[in-house]
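Homework help board

Subject: predicted structure for assignment chain

Our instructor gave us this sequence and asked us to write out the predicted structure in C-alpha cell form, then describe one feature. I got the C-alpha cells but I'm not sure how to describe them. Can anyone check?
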Amino acid sequence: MVNTEPMTQRVELATVRDRLALDGLVTDYAVAVDDGDWAAYRRLFTPDGRADYRAAGGIEGDAGTVAGWLAERCAEFPVRQHLFVNRRVRLGTWEQDTGDTAEVRTDYVSPGLPRRGRGRGHRARPAERRPVRVHGGAHARRLAAEPGRRAGEMAEPDRRTGGRCDPLNPHPAGPGRTLEASRGREAPMKNVGHHLASPWRRSTAAAVAGALPVLAFPAPSLWWVAYVALVPWLLLIRSAPTGRRAAFDGWWGGFGFMLAMHHWLLPSLHVFTFVIAALLGALWAPWGWLVRRTLGGSPSGGRVAAALLVVPSGWLTIELIRSWQGLGGPWGVLGASQWQVEAALRLASVGGVWLPSFLVVALNVAVAVLVAVRRARVPAVAGLVAVAAAGSAAWAGAPRPDQTGERTRIALVQPGVVAGPDSPDRRFDREEQLTRELAGQDVDLVVWGESSVGFDLGDRPDLARRLAALSRETDAEILVNVDARRSDKPGIYKSSVLIGPDGPTGDRYDKMRLVPFGEYVPARSLLGWATSVGKAAGEDRRRGSEQVVMDLGDGLRIGPMVCFETAFPDMSRHLVQDGAGVLLAQSSTSTFQQSWAPEQHASLAALRAAETGRPMVHATLTGVSAVYGADGGRIGPWLGTDASAAQVYDVPSARGTTLYVRFGDWPPQAALVVLAVYGAVGLVRFRRGARRPLVPPVRTTHGSPVRHGR
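My C-alpha cell output:
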C-alpha cells in the first residue's frame, strides 16, 4: 500500500499557506484604505485587475482609476479603520488550475469618524464576495477581479448618519441596518463627481471652467474675477480619477480659455479658430497632470505648499511657450487682466506681466485649497499672506519712474471706419482733413494708425508731398504707417515712416513680428487651406530685421511698434534699453470692430508703460486709441470705436530704469527652475521607492531563514 501521508501533508501545508496569503491580502487592503496609501492599494491588483463600485453609485475601472476616486471620497474622513473578522475562504479553480483561485467572504466592524462630528460605529456585516486569483500559489500578494464580475462597491459617505468612507460596505448604516437593506435602494450620490462621470460631460465642464478667466479681460474688464476664476477648473482637475484624465481636463480647459480669449477671430478664421484653440489648449495638458499631482486626493500641508509654487510655475511656463510668435504670441496672458489695478502695474515694473500672472494663479490655488482641503488651511492662508506681502513689497519698494517735469504734446489721428473699393484714398483724405485741424495747437508729434497709408511713398510722390505740407502746417513731424509693396525691394511690408517738413526723413521701422494667419500663414504648404475657409493672408508680408529708435530732436526719442508687437513685453523693454523716451504703437483692429479685441489691444499699452517706466501712445485707425503715463495710468480720454477725431495729449516725460528693464523676464526663468527642482525631487523619490520591495520581509518568533533571530 502506497504511503500518501507526505503528499497529504504537502497539500495541507500549501492550503494553509494559501489561506495565510489571502488573510494578509485582506489585511493589506484594509490598511491601504485606512492609511490612504493608494500606491499600496494599486499594488494589490494584477495589471489587468479591475474594481467595480457602480452598484453603489460609484465607478468601475482599473486599480489606478479607482484609487484616485477612493482618495477623493475618503478625504472627508481623516480617521478610518477596518476590523475584519470571520473570514470564509473557498478555494476553487481558474481555467483548470486547481487551488489557484479563491472566493473570500468576510465580516467587519467599521467605526468611523467623519471630519465634522463623531460618527457612529457600524455593526458587523458581510462584505461583498470577491473572486481572487492566487498568483504564485502560497506566495500570493495581488488581487485580480475577473472581467465582468463585481470586485467591490463604494458610495459617498452618508453624513446624515455620521457614516464613513468604506470601500467594502459603501452604505454607512446605523445599528441594525444590514448590507442587504442598503443595497435595496439607490445610493444617495447626487454630487458633482457623479454627474461628471461621463467623459463628455466632464470635458464640457472643463472647457466652461477654463473660459471663466476671460471675464477679467476687456471688454467685461471684471479684473477681480481673475482672483477666483481658476478655482472651478482647479477643483475639477484635482478630482480627476487618474493623471491621464487630469491631463484631458487641462487640455479641455485650455481649449475653452483659448477659444473664449480669441472668439473674435471666428468671423475671419471660421472653423480654423477651433483648430488653433485645440492646438494651444494642449499646452495645459501637462499643467492638468501637475495640478492633480500636487492637489489631488487629500494633500498634506507639504504638498499644498509645493502646489503654491509649482502650479503657478507651470502656468507661467505655458505663457512663456505660447509667447513664441509662431504660436500666436502672448495675447491673453493672465496678468494682463490686471491692467487697471495700480498694485499689479507696480508688480509689472518688477517682473513684467509675468509676475502678476504668477501671483494671480497662486491666489487661485490658495482659494481652491481653502474650499476643498480644509485640513490644509494653514499653508493656504500662508499663500494668501505671501501674495499680499509680495504686492505690498512691490508697492513700497519698487523704484518709481522719475518725472522730469517736461511734457510732449502728441496728437492721435483716428479716421474711423472707411470701407469700399477706394478706401485707401478716402482714408488718406480723412486723415489729412483731421490733421489740418491740429494747426496752431503747438503739437510736437502727430501719429497715424496702422495701414494709414495704403501706397508706397516711392511710387506715390504726390502723397509724400501732401504729408510734407501737413508737417509744415502743423509744425510737427508725422509718423505714418505704410502698408504696401515696396518700390525699393520685393515684398509687402508694414512700416512706420517719419515725415518731416521736407518729406520722409529716412527714419523707417519695418514690422518684425507678424500676425499669424492675418499677415502670414505659418507653414503655408501645410496650412495654406486656411485661406479657403477664412480671411487668412493670401500673400505673406515680409519681416523687418531690427528695432529702431527715432530721434526727433530736442531730446525726444520714440520707439515705434506696430499692432501685434505690443503684446510682446521684450520688444518695449529693448526699445527703452536703446534709449526710447516714449513708446508708440500703430494699430488697426477694424476687422474686429464690434468685438472685445480693440479694448483688449488698447489695455496692453498700460502694461508696457508700467513695465518700462515710459509713457506709451496707442494710435489706431478705428479705435480704441489711448495714452498711458510711465506708471501705466491712463492720460486723457480714450477714442472709442465710434470716434473719428484728432486728439492732443500732454504726455509727461520720465526717466530711470525699472527692475523689469534691468533684469528682464526673470519670473518665467525662475518658474522653469522651480519645475526642474520639483521634477528632480520627484525622480529621486521614485527611484528610492523603486528599490524598496513591494512586500516587506516576514519576521516570525522563530527567526527568519535569512536573518536568524530577527
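Reply (TA_rk): Your C-alpha cells look well-formed. For the description, you could write something like this. The first strand starts at residue 50 and ends at 52. That's the kind of observation they're looking for.
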